[in-house]
Specification:
Elements (H helix, E strand, L loop, with lengths): L6 H4 L7 H12 L5 E2 L11 H11 L14 H15 L9 E4 L2 H12 L5 E6 L4 H8 L3 E6 L15 H6 E6 L12 H14 L2 E5 L21 H4 E6 H4 L8 E5 L1 H12 L7 H12 L4 H22 L12 E5 L6 H12 L1 E2 L1 E2 L10 E5 L4 H12 L7
Helix pairs in contact: 2-14, 3-12, 4-12, 5-6, 5-11, 13-15
The protein binds pyridoxal-5'-phosphate.
Pyridoxal-5'-phosphate binds next to helix 5 and helix 10.
């Protein structure tokens, strides 16, 4: 037997978190209490009315069969209504809305619809790893758009040379951004849409964090930008907005031809979303939203505790205006991997090394606000005992 994996699997970048996982297991087995600021997964439960909707729908046998359509009509309408209320963007529920089994699923599959072997795909670096792996699975070549502090962690469209732009088929953007927590304004989206049109590039905007913003900041949708719907789509997810990461429910909206291509790929791979989950998603989108004020207030308090704490140690960390990530420049002579290891071994704090999310993430670590405030305060206390912060 030959169990050699395919060339495309061999092309995936090495999994940099294996070493962290190993150290984590080892420290835990020694009885060390770790504060895990590594995982971007909400610690709060899904709202009760959404769970109720699922439970009720699950008892109805008509939900039990294959959902072999591109999402229930009622769900596609609920998504279009939500978009109109939230962003003032009009969508045709029949052609411009597609429910997904999580936005990771849609992001991983979109290149299969539009990228030919050898085509370039522009991906933010550091960034969500799926932009690159989905590209590689389609035979495409990911090209890094470096997100640096100098450019406010906004992909610099002017830095993309003509040759690259002409060979690029697709571009991914993500604001509010994971991992840098950077935000952008509508002008940036407008420039991106114009760039995409000029170079005949499909623009895929990952909007997973538009509903997690603070201090009165209201993140825009890419589709609010002029010309956006002619060149692109936007991915949204119920995962972070409604604490539903395990439910696998999200959607893509925007250009009908792009939506149709993605839908064609999906119809050959999955057989739809469990209708009870679709009904629960309708309940989330159409139901009361006031619990989110409390949720955001909770994240804001955690953010202030962590960032103000870090700064009191002499670290210079900016308060994020959105997302539940804090992107910190590594102090002293450390690089992101050695600093991550130091934090784990000397302070029992798990973080994500920036370099694990792309070469431009070198020199940073990412911390998440998905742990209780008291734990974040304890993390700051533990950090204060480290040599690097006792200058
Ligand atoms: C969490 C996250 C998502 C959402 O993924 P789902 O598959 O919908 O759970 C998408 N993009 C980014 C950048 C994320 O951090």
């Amino acid at each position: 037997m030959n169990f050699m994996v395919s060339e495309r699997l061999k092309k995936l970048p090495p999994y940099l978190f294996a070493e962290i996982d190993r150290v984590k297991r080892e420290l835990r087995s020694q009885g060390k209490e770790l504060i895990d600021l590594g995982v971007g997964d909400p610690d709060q439960p899904t709202p009760p009315h959404v769970i109720e909707a699922l439970a009720r729908a699950a008892r109805d046998p008509s939900t039990h069969t294959y959902a072999l359509d591109s999402g229930m009509e009622e769900l596609r309408e609920a998504i279009a209504d939500w978009y109109l209320r939230r962003f003032g963007v009009e969508l045709d529920p029949a052609t411009e809305v597609l429910p997904l089994l999580g936005s990771k699923e849609g992001i991983a599959h979109i290149p299969l619809a539009f990228v030919n072997p050898g085509d370039l795909v522009l991906v933010p670096n550091p960034g969500y790893p799926v932009y690159g792996s989905g590209t590689i699975f389609a035979g495409g070549i990911p090209v890094a758009m470096g997100l640096t502090e100098e450019n406010g962690f906004l992909a610099d469209l002017n830095a993309i040379d003509d040759e690259t732009a002409s060979r690029a088929r697709l571009m991914f953007l993500n604001y509010p951004n994971n991992p840098t927590s950077a935000v952008c304004d509508l002008d940036y989206f407008e420039a991106a849409a114009a760039f995409a049109r000029k170079n005949d590039i499909i623009l895929c905007h990952d909007a997973a964090y538009t509903e997690l913003a603070f201090d009165g900041y209201n993140p825009p949708s890419f589709l609010q930008a002029e010309g956006a719907k002619e060149v692109g789509i936007e991915f949204h997810s119920l995962s972070k907005t409604y604490n539903m990461t395990g439910w696998r429910t999200a959607f893509a909206v925007g250009n009908a031809d792009i939506i149709s291509g993605l839908s064609k790929v999906k119809s050959n791979i999955d057989s739809g979303i469990f209708r009870a989950v679709q009904i629960a998603a309708i309940a989330a989108l159409n139901g009361p939203q006031d619990f989110r004020l409390e949720l955001l207030e909770m994240y804001r308090r955690r953010r202030d505790t962590l960032v103000e704490g870090l700064n009191s140690l002499g670290w210079k960390v900016k308060k994020p205006r959105a997302t539940f990530y804090v992107w910190c420049r590594v102090p002293g002579d450390y690089d992101s991997s050695s600093f991550t290891t130091l934090l784990m071994e000397e302070a029992g704090i798990v973080t994500t090394p920036g370099v694990g999310l792309g070469s431009y993430g070198e020199g940073y670590v990412r911390m998440t606000l998905t742990r209780p405030e008291a734990e974040l305060a304890q993390a700051v206390e533990r950090l204060g005992k480290l040599e690097v912060f006792r200058a």
